[in-house]
Here is the input.
Amino acid sequence: MTMTGQDISGTGRPQSLEGRDPEFQVADSQIPDSQILDCPILVVDDTAFNRTVIGTFLAEAGFRKVSFATNGMEALAMIEAGVPDLLILDIMMPGIDGYEVCRRLRAMPETADLPILVQTALSSGEDRNRAFAAGTTDLVAKPLERTELLARVRIHLEDRVLIRRLQSYRARVEAELSIARSMQEHLLPTPAQCTAVAGAAGCTLRAHSVISPHLGGDLWGLLPLSGRRFGVYLLNVAGQGVSAALNAFRLHTLLQELGPIHGEDAAALLSALNDRAAGLLAPGETATMTYGVVDGELGRFTHASAEGAPPMILRGDGGSDFGVATGLAIGIAPGTRYRAEVMELPPGAVLALYSVAVLEALDAGGTGIGLGWMIARAVAEGDGFEAVVRSLSFALGQVSGDDHTLLWIERGAR
Amino acid sequence: MNTGNMNTGDMMAAGPLAGGSDSADGLAGARVLVVDDNRINRHLLLALLERGGITLVEQAEDGQEALARMERFKPDLVLLDLMMPRMDGFEMCRLLRADPRWKSLPVLVQSSLNRVEDRARAFRAGATDYVTKPINAVELLARVRIQLRKRAMLRDLEQYHSRTESELALARAMQSRLLPGPDRLADLQAATGIAIDAHFAPSSELGGDFWGIDRLPGGRVAVYMVDFSGHGVGAALNTFRLDAICRQIGSTGLTPAEFLAAMNRRLCGLLPCGQFATMLTGLIDPVAGVFDYASAGSTTPMMWLPGDEAPRLGDGSGLPLGLLPSATYDSRQLPMPPGARLFLYSDAAIEIPLGSEGHDVLDEPGLAALLARRLHEPDGARLLDGLLGDLHATGPIDDDLTALLVSRRR
Here is the structure.
């Protein structure tokens, strides 16, 4: 039996960016007739007369790839050589009967979802039930009626073609996104880098960041600075998915350039980034961001904010402070000048930076007050970071498609 | 209508199929609309579905009532009787199929009509499946489940498709905005006499190819072309990085070789292991009549002058970007007097397989030979179109394809 490869991959070759290639529009339920008629069909029947009748019905209807098997063993061998799109199967056959063919096909992953249309003279309910229990998709009664047989054949093949197209589209896009996602993860500091950079300032840094399988605009990073200090940023590009990630990569590239120049000065870094971003981001494309310098010597966190979620400092005595620095989001107005704000970071205190998604998940009001209370309670109960991450997972769901990031920087007690 | 047509013996046999956890295969939350004019039939079907774990069921007495409920209830499957007052099942089926919202909704007909003509008529009206009363409970449930599972699977796939399709369309538009548009190219030609015809075709929605131009003092024009390893979304992320870097370092004041070295140092710090890019960047100097360029493993640039029989091949060799931070690049030169034309392309153009077996590809001599036949086509767009037609006729192109034709008009 020859199985001709059909172009159902969904990986079309567009001629230009503007010209939409029809092959990308895989979900259009209008499947061309030729594609249905080119689907390979295998007819299994031990009676020559039945094979002739079915073959004639199918040929008259225009089906071009019909093969025949005379018994169960032959059918299984043919299917092993190439899986058809539809099996029309007789039940009562010598040797391996139709029930057994069904059961064996269902046990193999390649044929687990192959449509099997059983044709049977059996009219008792029990036999029909047995056929369904064995894995039949559909059942038609003998003597076969032409219109009904062809209608059922067509329904199964149309679904098959549509499902296969969508499945291969999904497999291709998922593969692409998974590569892109690992690239996005690669942008983030490794645990070793966290330990080295934060450790030089006498701090520990723990990070919880979730990148959506569809990609997204969350990004954070560290800048090693001289002395017992380091810079830390957290940014979130508006929107979601691939386009947000594309802009996150752009901003990351800019930060690689600007960090060494402006890393000491939180306000200058944001101002420079915003100016440079103006040439790259389209109108309406924006990002929120917080950048600050942790000074482990003086016990300070000096930061500027482009509409970023307010940094929270949790003091050893259980109280908490929120940053009040404000500024326009990156990409709104070139020439925006940001101002830095200093927060005290006493020994043993925790600086929490988090994306807006975290704020929204844990604190519906967005005031930060609920979040502070929640974090304070989590800390009182033991390992604050772990507890907050647990609450986050609970609030956002383990399989949430949304990006979110929580950075937990603890200044060592002296 | 005969109401005693539910075979309760089979109902009891429903044991093995009844209940169970179906949350994994699309039955949880499945909604079924039962349409039958007979109340007892409806209740029997309801009870049967419930035994099968399907509890979101609504009922309608005839086609009209059913149609009125469709929009609000949004069923995943309709169990449809045929013989009903007011609007029968045939008519209801036809109306459903005429509505784009219900075009692919499974409609399982259950009827005591069992003549060949009735069944054929029901299928012609758009029925998905047909069972005859008296109803075999196990069979009906099996068929309902098969249809619901397929429906759930399709819906899941369609949701994924529509979501990613619109996201990728957005990203694709962003990527096309990276490239010089018709306005910039028209300005370039008006100001410098340099015309560029371009073809950019990612192998999927997004790609890893990228090109750009920069106008410099003294009428000079920088042109560059980049091809990242891989294709698709991941490679596209890298083109956005490269665009950002290009705009940071600019080409002013740097020779092409220095520009590549600076680009390489930055990409070495950014690209994950195993990713790299080839790039050719050059300066067209109209006063000196030369093209000064440098290449990081790019394809061979091809240049021809009026009267040439074949393109002159430049040198594309050099270490690709992103592999070795200390890499340096050679300065090279090709003559580019008025009337000269330059052809740059991604490697997809020379890696087209020749014939179905063997490992022979078109390669540079093959491409040069195809190009030689069209060297003196005066219209740049037509030359490029013709050449691309030749390439597509040669064999399948499986990677992002970018081609640039740069013509010095004066």
The mean pLDDT of chain A is 86. The radius of gyration of chain A is 31 Å. Chain A touches chain B through 65 residues (CB under 8 Å).
